[in-house]
């Protein structure tokens, strides 16, 4: 069955390839000939684009230069150009590779090409997008070398060390803003084409940009839409091929993967000096394919496949574009996923957008509409006009809800005020961002508070508790909790916990976490263990498992007391070192450590 399909696909391909003079029919783009698209392959984590040279005795296929950075930039170090006295960093960019060419030849076998070679390149110039902070740039390479040297020189006012650390932190972002203007040798003349630098294992492309290099593909006529099928969190449109019996094609999904956002932090793009949220979309996956196969059983399908996403034009509502800048849709080299960036004007704004996308995804996604074109068998395109792809709408955990107009009005302001009113955002040297949910530094605020106060939050800039309702929202889907402690002798300790999650009011804000992360902790003993699966208790709300109130017995603070606790961050603030565990303290294997200061942070 596979063979007959392949043959049919081949004959169709030859039909298109066989149209003589197609290159001349293809309108020139930006003064160069457009290329005839044959395939896009993913080899060793780099994307390979393949075109047909158009030679009459063909098909002769040409693999375009790889432009792929295959070395990690973690150990990048600045150098000095002794002649110009400029400092620079040097990034090796792979142009050609024999192993990858052999793999491309293998993957293209079914087209029976006369030859598959790398396209001949004569020169490459590097430049950056106008709004990139990277300025001076050069591509040092001569024809027949397999690796080019991308040199980024620093501005006078930036040190090369700053630049190299920025590149290490956001190499993908910085490299994506670099454009390589390249001359390819084609049919006896040189033609200029634009490429982007990509990063191995992270090859995402803006399809609207690189697809300009190719002749427009014809639209598919031999397809008939048959039905939409609902998947668990998404829906798909299915078409039937009329030219091959029993062959069904599914349009790319473009469904929101909410679980990826819950493990994503807010990121910073150094090349643009902006914070952003990365939203991950699913384009095709095995599970959805299986479901569609099952649901099409009444058609007795011989084969069911995904079409490949070719372009996705989006329109953004004015309310979304007024507050956020939406980046282009970037598609992965293996066609399985896509990314969309939401650039924010501030960190707080990104924080608010993240809550929204997690707790009520439709609030965000309804502002984006898509018009897609999908590639069928590398030959023709299916346009989906006004095609509004479905997104995973289901929320993880609970979203804020309210029963009256007044309580409803308060929820967004509650969230925003909690997060913005205190100096709550912090970054660590490893690039992760945290929001502080509890802080006790000066002792100026009493933590002997009622249930109602622990629920809504209290305190001010140095000492505060942001509130159980906010913590519950912030930890939706599970977050990383970081505990930072300062001892009386000046030593600092910290512990990190994965999968920290606080339920809603109906569960009495029950807290669970998956595990302490020893590699991210400097304590050897998990003093939170007692609190796992416990409900929250305060001096006026005893939800612990002991007959007396733990809160009353241990300083009248609120905590996830069990029977009772080994960590008492909301105990009494002390002005001297004391071994009394009614005070702020952490149990360390054999004894209580008195805490001088303590902070609880959640990764965002
Ligand atoms: C190659 O160039 C010749 C003359 O410049 C032109 O007639 C021919 O159509 C070109 N062929 C292709 C495949 O571009
Ligand atoms: C990509 O993954 C491969 C295999 O895991 C690894 O050897 C390579 O260093 C990675 N490339 C980059 C740029 O991190
Ligand atoms: C930055 O450059 C990109 C591409 O050149 C452009 O689409 C975008 O609008 C620019 N953004 C700003 C803030 O100038
Ligand atoms: C590279 O830059 C030089 C000098 O500006 C120019 O003459 C040449 O055409 C450029 N090449 C490409 C491929 O853009
Ligand atoms: C659908 O979403 C729910 C919650 O968002 C998740 O638990 C489930 O695994 C998702 N199903 C699929 C097929 O992704
Ligand atoms: C969604 O994202 C998560 C986390 O990045 C990933 O593990 C998972 O495989 C993704 N789901 C699908 C269906 O690709
Ligand atoms: C401070 O006290 C802790 C706990 O007793 C001990 O482990 C640490 O070594 C001490 N640090 C200093 C600087 O004395
Ligand atoms: C905490 O409780 C959860 C839920 O029962 C469990 O999955 C997890 O393993 C527990 N964590 C630890 C460290 O015991």
Entry keywords:
single chain; 604 residues; alpha+beta; Gamma Fibrinogen, Chain A, domain 1; 3 domains; 11-stranded antiparallel β-sheet; 7-stranded antiparallel β-sheet; 20% helix; 34% strand; globular; disordered N terminus; binds 2-acetamido-2-deoxy-beta-D-glucopyranose; Fibrinogen-like_C
Notes on the structure:
The protein has 604 residues and is an alpha+beta fold. The chain folds into three domains: 2-210, no CATH class; 223-383, no CATH class; 405-603, Gamma Fibrinogen, Chain A, domain 1, CATH 3.90.215. It is globular and about 90 Å long. The protein starts with a helix and ends with a strand. Residues 1-24 have low confidence and may be disordered. Residues 129-131 line the site of one 2-acetamido-2-deoxy-beta-D-glucopyranose.
């Amino acid at each position: 069955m596979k063979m007959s399909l392949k043959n049919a696909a081949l004959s169709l391909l030859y039909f298109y390839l066989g149209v003589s003079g197609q290159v001349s029919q293809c309108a020139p783009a930006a003064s160069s000939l457009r290329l005839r698209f044959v395939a896009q392959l993913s080899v060793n984590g780099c994307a390979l684009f393949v075109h047909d040279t158009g030679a009459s005795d063909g098909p002769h296929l040409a693999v375009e230069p790889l432009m792929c950075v295959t070395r990690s930039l973690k150990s990048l170090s600045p150098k000095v150009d002794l002649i110009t006295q400029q400092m620079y960093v040097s990034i090796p960019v792979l142009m050609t590779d024999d192993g990858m060419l052999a793999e491309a030849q293998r993957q293209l076998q079914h087209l029976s090409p006369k030859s598959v070679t790398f396209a001949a390149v004569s020169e490459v110039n590097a430049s950056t997008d106008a709004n990139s902070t990277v300025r001076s740039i050069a591509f040092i390479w001569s024809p027949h070398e397999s690796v080019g040297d991308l040199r980024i020189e620093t501005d006078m006012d930036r040190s090369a060390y700053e630049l190299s650390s920025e590149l290490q932190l956001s190499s993908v972002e910085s490299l994506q803003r670099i454009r390589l203007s390249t001359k390819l040798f084609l049919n006896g003349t040189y033609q200029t084409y634009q490429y982007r630098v990509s990063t191995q294992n992270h090859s995402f492309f803006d399809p609207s940009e690189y697809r300009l290099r190719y002749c427009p593909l014809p639209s598919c006529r031999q397809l008939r839409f048959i039905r939409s099928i609902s998947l668990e969190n998404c829906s798909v449109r299915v078409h039937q091929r009329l030219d091959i019996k029993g062959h069904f094609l599914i349009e790319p999904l473009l469904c929101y993967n909410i679980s990826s956002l819950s493990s994503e932090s807010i990121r910073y793009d150094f090349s643009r000096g902006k914070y952003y949220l990365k939203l991950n979309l699913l384009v095709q996956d095995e599970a959805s394919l299986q479901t569609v196969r099952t649901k099409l059983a009444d058609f007795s399908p011989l084969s069911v496949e995904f079409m490949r996403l070719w372009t996705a034009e989006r329109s953004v509502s004015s309310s979304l574009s007024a507050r956020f800048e939406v980046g282009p849709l970037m598609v992965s080299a293996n066609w399985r996923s896509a990314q969309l960036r939401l650039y924010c004007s501030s960190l707080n704004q990104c924080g608010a957008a993240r809550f929204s996308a997690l707790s009520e995804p439709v609030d965000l996604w309804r502002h984006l509409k898509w018009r897609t074109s999908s590639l069928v068998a590398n030959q023709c395109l299916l346009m989906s006009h006004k095609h509004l792809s479905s997104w995973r709408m289901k929320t993880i955990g609970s979203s804020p809800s309210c029963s009256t107009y007044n309580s409803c009005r308060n929820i967004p302001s509650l969230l925003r005020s909690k997060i913005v009113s205190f100096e709550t955002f912090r970054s660590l040297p490893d690039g992760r961002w945290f929001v502080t949910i509890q802080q006790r530094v000066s002792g100026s605020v009493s933590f002997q508070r009622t249930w109602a106060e622990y629920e809504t939050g209290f305190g001010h800039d140095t000492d505060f508790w942001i509130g159980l309702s906010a913590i519950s929202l912030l930890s939706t889907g599970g977050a990383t909790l970081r505990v930072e402690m300062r001892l009386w002798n000046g030593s600092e300790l910290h512990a990190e916990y994965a999968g920290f999650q606080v339920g809603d009011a109906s569960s009495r804000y029950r807290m669970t976490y998956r595990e302490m992360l020893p590699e991210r902790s400097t304590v050897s003993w998990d003093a939170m263990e007692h609190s796992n699966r416990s409900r929250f208790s305060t001096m006026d709300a005893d939800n612990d498992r002991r007959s007396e109130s733990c809160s009353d017995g241990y300083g009248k603070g609120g905590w996830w007391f069990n029977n009772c606790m080994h960590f008492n961050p909301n105990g009494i603030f002390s002005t001297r070192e004391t071994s009394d565990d009614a005070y702020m303290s952490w149990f360390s294997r054999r004894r209580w450590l008195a805490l001088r200061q303590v902070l609880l942070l959640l990764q965002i």
